Amino acid sequence: MSREQLLDLLRGALSTADADGTEIVAITSDEALTWYAENIIHQNVAAHTAQISVRAVVGKQVGSASTTDLTLEGIQRTIQSASDAARLMPEDPDFPGLPLPQTVQETDVGYVPATVASQPGERAAAVRSVIDGAEHAGLRAAGTYLVQSNELAVVSTTGVAAFHRDTMASLKAVVMGDDSSGYGYVSSSDVADIDPLATGQRAVQTAMETRNPMDVEPGPYDVVLSPWAVDELMKMMAFHALSARSIEEHTSFLDGRQGEHLVSPLISLYDDGLDPTGLPLPFDYEGQPKQRVDFISQGVAGDVVYDTYYAKKAGRASTGHSLQQPNDFGPVPLNFFMAAGESAEEEMVAHTERGIYVTRFWYANVVEPRQMTVTGMTRDGTYLIENGRRTRGIRNLRFTQSLVEMLKSTLEVGRDRSILASGFGVGGMVLPSLRVQAFHFTGATKKSQ
Amino acid sequence: MDRFTEQVIAAARRRGANYCDCRLIELEREEIAVMNGALRALTQASQRGFGVRVIVDGAWGFSSSSVTSDGEIDRIVDEAVLIARASASVKKRDVVLAPTGVYEDLVPHQAARDPFTVPDGLKVELLVEATRAMQIPGVVMARGQMQFSRERKTFASSEGSYIIQDRIESGAGIKAIAADDKGGVQVRSYPMSLSGDSAQAGWEFVEAMDLVTHAEPTAREAVALLTAKPCPSGVKDLVVGGQQMALQIHESCGHPTELDRVMGMEASFAGTSFLTTDKKGTFQYGSPHVNLTADPTIPHALGGLVYDDEGVRGRKVYLVQNGIFKHYLNSRASAPVVGEEPMGAMRADGFSRCPIVRMVSINIEPGMASFDELVGGIDDGILVDGIKSWSIDDRRLNFQFGSEIGWEIRGGKLQEMLRNPTYTGIAYEFWRSCDAVGDASQYHVWGVDNCGKGEPMQVAHVSHGTSPARFRQVRVGVLDE
Questions:
Q1: Which A residues in the span 354-413 are in contact with B, Cβ-Cβ below 8 Å?
Q2: On the CB side of A227, how many CA atoms lie within 13 Å of its CA?
Q3: Residue A449 forms part of a structural domain
């Protein structure tokens, strides 16, 4: 649908709303995914979905309902269900009221018609290219090629009317040998930016270079982390420590530390839904404009993200980071950035006398929240660095590391940043490589017997 | 067969599909969250849609839509066929499906009292009362939640199966977060962490949890953990509580026995498996005390099913028997590759996702040891329970898990409470060190509603029947090394 068609449909549906206030969030998604492994396509799927979520307010009573039926009648039935539900709800004394309309800078940056028009045959050809490269090297390729187009609209009886659409194409390649593997990933709103040859070659090269991995003893090592490795760690931080909810639960390392020099001055972390160098989303699921939020500025602790619920509790304004309401997740940073530094990744490797290069981390999870102590594994290309060179592959290691300590011990930040789409179908992270001193590896995997 | 699914199958046949199945799903969900005695969120969602899976030119295609009109049938079947033809362009061999029975069946739900007939006010009030009871000094946040779903799934295949399955799920849990002014934060949950316990059951399942009675003791444990001793570091004997055993089985047995993962199909996301096909029937996965089953027939189990999402009737198999690795979780396409018959483990997350191999109810069979005997057999060790943190490598070998609570064991007796207990190991070494499993009196089937797999991510509802078990010489206390 066009912007006007969708907004008109939703506003038309609102005309029958009988609650004191009503808000509709509409999400439509067309998604196609080619999933390959062992050098064949083993799943190739498409999904066309719509979700309409309605929040109805009667006094301080709030009801909600949602449906996948995008017809006018279906939406109006859902509005009525939400209204009926509200009248049965206990009052919510903390309910801040439906937000008022704010100026939103709508943008079509991130929407590329060619991505919408791409076909299954084009995805199959791209995958064929990755597979051919792997087969030529005697390796096995696995991965996905995902193409999405999404629409988000928010309207309410307070006058909120916001619309955004975006596209996303992402190609992932994991190439495996008998005892090694490599990784390549590229994502962009423009399908033309997807380079299957380069993505596959990167994965092939890593898998070849890390064959016959040696065992190294766990312990503290200087590390160079690729942007993919940094992504796995920063996702933990963004989800668990950078929201008003984490402050309320005392689980954030920023709790009570605003203004303090917490980490290296090389580190700046922020969320910016308007930055066109990322994957922009100009407003949140309450239709409130995204504000830039600086979590850490040159090492100094800053703010966290808010939705209207937590904003009212704190006596301040929303920063525009709400998920669909009502929810119990709290606000979430969906457009996360780490500021670029000055080093090329290869310079970071050159500056490391003995250490480890990590292509990816895997299955990270928080062990202790206040210091953001996280455990996880390396995968798909872990190298020993000796005398400033990646010399050979090593068997995968487990780390247990405070991310606050890691950011304190950061020695260099990469000047090139990668755009890494989130797995949620919206937003993502823009991240550089890092060089870190004394990163804690606490275990190693084994050959299976 | 109903008119809609009949039209889908006919449309696929007309377009040259050798095989087609259609799932038409209607789903209602309700989720309630209460925080410190006040309602935080009550959401009700309904969805309806269909997914079509075809084999054309020897390759799979799948498409789906939330629009269930006649016109949409042609569009979605066209797309599924087009996708299958694109897949065929890089195929190495044709998809071959193992034979399965042709069924016509109507499967009822297992709820005694449909939770959607229970007034929301009653549900909210129960959580309000429970979370208020947890608001003791030291507790900074008391949370409670409930979740219910009611689904009707119609499966029809070009082979002639037509199966309607009704399913109701209910679940609930409460959680206390305690914090001090020294930066300490501790969590304790009841009856289980994450989203609590869930089952294929009705409101009676939630009532039986008796959340209000358990609220204050749960909160007291959270506060006590703030000043508890840290978990010691070292190699010690370990008793894993029943709830934590659910996680242990899930990560180190459930996932590595998924045959699609073993065959590399999950390699680009969650990885592969150490349980390669050459190990089937001979590999010493655990000690002789270890008997692990995949059993979708356990009544009320969240991972239970009568038919999976390719129409295979679910049946119990031993994944590990007397410590030996025996069987995989499989599908119609993968089972023949390793000489197995399909056992009913193909499941999809709603209409818009294509089925993949998933856990059903993965369980450890009870042993003979009482709880006192499990603990009594340890001179220097720890007991851990309450799932808090989990991580495992991409071959399901190296794991590290954290629990909400632990206790020291000395001289065969439980001693002081321990905070932040963690333990780590290599899957098969860990299971080989098991020298006792708790008896049937300690057995419980835990519902787990957050099992993630696949791309795009699919969330499955699975379950694990467990008793506590004892393991020798395990590395513990990783956090404080």
A1: 362-370, 373, 375-377, 379-380, 396, 398, 400
A2: 24
A3: no
Residue A119 inside a domain? The answer is yes
We report the CATH number of the domain holding residue A190 as 3.30.2290.10
> Considering its fold, how many domains does chain A have in total?
2
Which one of A44, A174, A326 has the shortest CB-CB distance to B40?
A: A326
B85 contacts in chain A (CB < 8 Å): 120
DSSP A195: -
A380: left (phi over 0), alpha (psi -120 to 50) or beta: left
Q: Which residues of B touch A400 (CB under 8 A)?
A: 400, 478-479
Q: Do A171 and A307 share a domain, yes or no? A: no
pLDDT at residue number B423: 97
The dihedral over CA atoms of B389, B395, B396, B397, expressed in degrees to the nearest 10, equals -100
Domain around A148: 3-204
Q: Residues of B numbered 12-71 whose beta carbons fall under 8 angstroms of chain A's beta carbons: which are they?
A: 33, 35, 38-49, 51, 59-67
Q: Which residue ranges form the domains of chain B, and what is each CATH number? A: 3-227 (3.30.2290.10), 230-476 (no CATH)
d(CA A427, CA A19): 32
Look-up: residue for tokens 């200087």? A222
* CA pair distance B287, B430, nearest whole angstrom: 9
- Cα–Cα separations (whole angstroms), residue B362 to B177, B255, B297: 30, 10, 11
- The answer to whether the CB atoms of A43 and B354 lie below 8 A apart is yes
The ipTM value here is: 0.90
Interface test with A, best of B394, B399, B424 (most A CBs within 10 A): B394
**Cβ–Cβ < 8 Å for A357, A348:** no
Q: Which residues of A touch B79 (CB under 8 A)?
A: 46
Mean pLDDT, chain A cut into blocks of 10 residues (449 residues total)? 92 95 96 91 87 95 92 95 88 90 91 93 93 97 95 97 95 96 95 97 98 96 98 96 96 95 98 93 97 98 97 96 93 97 98 98 94 96 98 96 98 96 85 98 82
The pLDDT tens digits for B169-212 are: 999 999 999 999 988 999 999 999 999 999 999 999 999 999 99
Domain boundary among A143, A171, A204: A204
Q: Is residue A416 part of a domain?
A: yes
The shares of helix, strand and coil residues in chain B, as percent rounded to the nearest 5, are 25, 40, 35
Residue of chain A whose alpha carbon sits nearest to that of B53:
A45
CB nearest B400 (choices: A327, A362, A398): A398
In this structure, the answer to whether residues A192 and A310 fall within a common structural domain is no
Of B66, B50, B67, which is closest to residue B12 (Cα–Cα)?
B50
Nearest residue, CB atoms, A375 vs list B45, B283, B391: B391
